């Protein structure tokens, strides 16, 4: 699988595909014994119905031009079903071989509000997409302690490192919200602008209701 780790969903898909091969093989074998040619129409239909589906996501980190390191998961009933590789600088995520259904897309990055897109449909025979290159799902900057709210704790943490270079400090490098190499006035300004924002009210979207989560590609 490209871009995703093997989870329960992967093994379920593998089981379904194995069953499909058995059915196709059984059908063809039975036809051959009776001196007939196996129907290629039937084989094509099976492959179309069971073809793996890709889900493509475009995400972006507010205030940054490099959107690396966003972790993306597809959840069902609060359980992680698929995990993608963290994004590269373009913020693109790809889940491969997803079974049809409705999922919650979860996006996380250090220093940003945890973000969710609810009710993402994954439909047989179509590529699902969340966000576009032009309008990616934006992660809100400033949740330094990752407690789903931008507030006094984050402000306090930023002030503790104010006017310091981040090089060599992996544990708090994400306080540098604009990736300037230093925790400073711009980071403080960004955090203040987003003060009081939280995941429930400001970073939880419903695919059915919200643009730009419909893909147009
Ligand atoms: Ca916080
Ligand atoms: Ca900075």
SSE layout and pairings?
Elements: H1 8-33, H2 40-50, E1 53-61, E2 71-76, E3 79-83, E4 92-98, E5 101-108, E6 111-112, E7 115-122, E8 128-130, E9 137-139, E10 141-143, H3 152-160, E11 164-165, E12 182-183, H4 185-193, H5 199-202, E13 204-206
Residues 143, 145, 147, 149-151, 153-154 line the site of one calcium ion.
Structure description:
It is a single chain. The protein has 217 residues and is an alpha/beta fold. The protein folds into two domains: 8-140 and 198-206, Carboxypeptidase-like, regulatory domain (Immunoglobulin-like, Sandwich); 144-193, Type 1 dockerin domain (Orthogonal Bundle), CATH 1.10.1330. 27% of the residues lie in helices and 28% in strands. It has five helices and 13 strands. The strands form four sheets. The chain has a five-stranded mixed beta sheet with strand order 3-2-5-7-13. Strands 1, 4, 8 and 9 form a four-stranded mixed beta sheet that branches. Strand 2 and strand 3 (79-83) form a beta hairpin. Helix 1 (8-33) packs antiparallel against helix 2 and helix 3 packs antiparallel against helix 4 (185-193). It is elongated. The model is unreliable at 1-36 (pLDDT under 50). The site of one calcium ion (CA) has 8 residues, from strand 12 and helix 4. Residues 176, 178, 180, 182-184, 186-187 line the site of one calcium ion.
